[in-house]
Design a protein that fits this description.
Layout lengths: L2 E2 L8 H21 L3 E5 L3 E7 L8 E6 L2 E8 L18 E8 L4 E11 L2 E8 L16
Antiparallel strand pairs: 1-6, 2-3, 3-8, 4-5, 5-6, 7-8
Amino acid sequence: MVEKSDFSATAPNWLSQIYGPMQRFGERVAEFFAPNSEAAAAADYYEISVELPGVPHENVSVDVHDGRLTVSGEKQEKKSEEGKSYFFSEITYGRFQRAFRLPPDADEDKISATHKDGVLTIKIAKAQPETSTAKSIPINRG
């Protein structure tokens, strides 16, 4: 199963004990500003969808390293202040990042990403189990 990543797993234990509460608070704040996502599994692949309305594909990157898939980018503000008085704005702008821990059977060499209609869809192939064929072992006379 694909899981949201826990960054504390990469820190030494003593560091986690000291900064753990502060780090968890920071992660919760970062998740608040992070784009919504969902993960699913099919027979041959895992699929992660990330909502990125208003973010052009040139401003998005997808990286994988050591079993962790990271989606990052930036939604740039394009407001024109001429002749407008804003009463409120609920649109979030700025940099974002989401990280997902991949399952052990994910094939990091077979990942594809498609950005369409404000949704980034990432497909991660499942590694095919190595099939062993039965073979006869010759017995030598000693």
